[in-house]
Design goal:
The complex is a heterodimer of chains A (about 250) and B (about 300).
Chain A (H helix, E strand, L loop, with lengths): L1 H17 L1 H25 L4 H33 L2 H6 L7 H27 L8 H28 L3 H17 L12 H9 L1 H14 L4 H28 L3
Helix pairs in contact in A: 1-2, 1-5, 2-3, 2-5, 3-5, 3-6, 3-7, 3-9, 5-6, 6-9, 6-10, 9-10
Chain B lengths: L2 E12 L2 E12 L3 E5 L6 H8 L7 E6 L2 E2 L4 H5 L2 E4 L11 H11 L4 H14 L15 H13 L5 E5 L7 H16 L3 E6 L2 H7 L2 E6 L2 E6 L1 H7 L3 E7 L5 H8 L5 E4 L4 H11 L4 E7 L3 H9 L4
Parallel strand pairs in B: 3-8, 3-9, 6-7, 7-8
Antiparallel strand pairs in B: 1-2, 1-4, 4-5, 9-10, 11-12, 11-13
The chains are: A mainly alpha (about 250), B alpha/beta (about 300).
Amino acid sequence: MISQSLTLTWRSLVPLKNSPGQLLAMLIQPVFMIVIFVYLFGGAAGGDRAEAVQYMLPGVLVQVALMATIGTGMNLATDIGNGVFDRFRTMPIARMAPLAGRILADLCTMTVTLAMAVLVGYLVGFRVTTSPLEALAGLGLVLLFTMALSWASAWIGVIAKSVTAMQGISTAVLLPLTFGSSAFIPATDLPGWLTAWMSVNPVSHLAAALRGFTVGGLDAADVWITLGWTAALLAVFVPLALRAYNRRVR
Amino acid sequence: MDYAIEAEGLVKRYGDKAALDGVDLGARAGTVLGVLGPNGAGKTTAVRILATLQRPDAGRARVHGHDVAERPAEVRKLIGLTGQYASVDEKLTGVQNLMMMGRLLGMNRSSARARATELLERFGLTEAGGRAASGYSGGMRRRLDLAVSLVSRPSVLFLDEPTTGLDPHARSELWEVVRELVADEVTVLLTTQYLEEADQLADDILLIDSGRVAASGTPDQLKAMAGGHRLDIRPLRAEDEEKAMAILGSGELSIPIHDLAMAPAVLRKLDEAGIVLAEHALRLPSLDDVFLTLTGARA
C-alpha cells in the first residue's frame, strides 16, 4: 500500500515538472499574500511595520497552508470527473492509495511553498528570534494540521458534484476559519461574539503556536489544542473520505 | 461451454428509474461479446457492475467464476477497463501513464519501463510517448487508454464505447487492435452504439434497450430475426421512383421477399413497365433493420 501511495504521489508531482508555469503560480501566491498583509493591512493598522511583520507572518503562513488544502479536494474532484479514478478502482490496489497519494503530494508542494514564504518573509524583515529547531517544529505543526485538514478537503472533493461546487464549499468553510482567527490580528477590542469564536477557532491556536515557535512566547496549550484538533480531524475525515470514495458513483 | 463473464438477472436502479431491469449475459472465453443499444439503454451501467465499480441491486455476476460483488479483489486481478471517456492522466506523458500502471501493479522500475515501451510500440505511440497525453488526438488518446488497461495483461477486457467520437480511420485502427487481442485469447466485452462495429467485431451480440435484453445471438441469428430477405432497387431515372414504388406496393424502394421466386417476378413486372434499374439487390437484413425492428429506436 505504501509503494502504491508513493507511485500516486509521484503521479501528482510529475505534472509540476512537466509544466513549470503551474509550479511558478503556486510559489508566487505566498509572495502576494505577504505583500498584501504586511504592507497593505499591516500599514493600515498604523503600528510599527517591523512589529506587524513579526505578528502577521506566522498568520500568513498558516493562511497560505490552509487555503492550499482546497487544492487537494479540487484535484480529487477533477480526477473523479475525468474517469482516472474509475480505472484505479478497477485495479488490485489498496483503496486508500489514491487518496493518500494525492495528500502526500500536496504536502510536498506545501513544504516547498512554506519554505518560499519564509524566504520572502525574511526579505520583508521577518526574523526568527527563537532557534531554527523551534521554528522547524512550528512549521512541522502547521504541516501536520494541514494534512489532517486535507482529509476533510478530500472528503468534500469526493462527495462534491463538481469541481466548482467543491471550490465553493471549501472557500465558504475556510474563510471564517482563517480570517475569523487571531492569525492576523490579536483578539482584543473586538465584539464579544467574535472574540468568543476566535478563541475556540483551531486556526487561532495553530497561528499562536507557530508564532510562539518562531518569535517566542510559546504557550504549550496552543500546541496541545492544535494536536487535539489534528487527531480529531483525522479520526472523523479519514473514514468519511474512504467510505465516500469506495461508494462514489459518477 | 466455458464462460469468462456471466451474469443473471442484473438490476440497478437510480431512484425509481431502472437502468438495468433484469439482464442476463454470457461471454464465452476468448470471444467478443458485443453489447449493443441506444444511448441510455444501460450498457455503461452493466459494464460498471461487471468491472466492480458498482454493486447490482439484484442479480449476480461472475468473472472467471469470481462473484463481482462478493470477491471484487479477485476480479480486479483479471480485468482491464477502457471507459467511454478516455481515462488516461492527461498531465502525464504516454510513457509516464504506462509506467504508473506498471508500478501500481507491483512491477519494478525497469520491468514497468520495458512493458511501457512494448505497449507504445504495439499501439503506434512510440514517437508520442514522451509528450503529455493532453496533446494527443482523440484516436491516440483511445489507443493509449487501451494500452494502459493492458499493462496488467488482463484476461477479460471491458471496452465501453471505445470508438465513440473517433473518425473512421482511427476506428478501424482500434478494431484491428481488438481483433489482435482476441487472437491472444483475451475475452472482450464491448459496448457500442454502432451496429457496424458489433457486426465487425462481435462473436455474439446482446441487444439491450431500456435496461432489458431485447435480443441475443450471433450477428447472423439476429439478422434472421428481423425477417427474411429484402429486395432493394434503384431506378436509373429518378422520375420512375414513384411508379416503381406503386409496382412494389411499398412506400420505399425496398420490399420483404418471403418466397425467393417472388424476386424475379417483381423484377419482370418493373421491366414490363419500362423502368430501367440502375441497381437491384437481394440481401439479408442488416443489423440496422434488427435494431429498428426490436427497439423502435434510431441508432
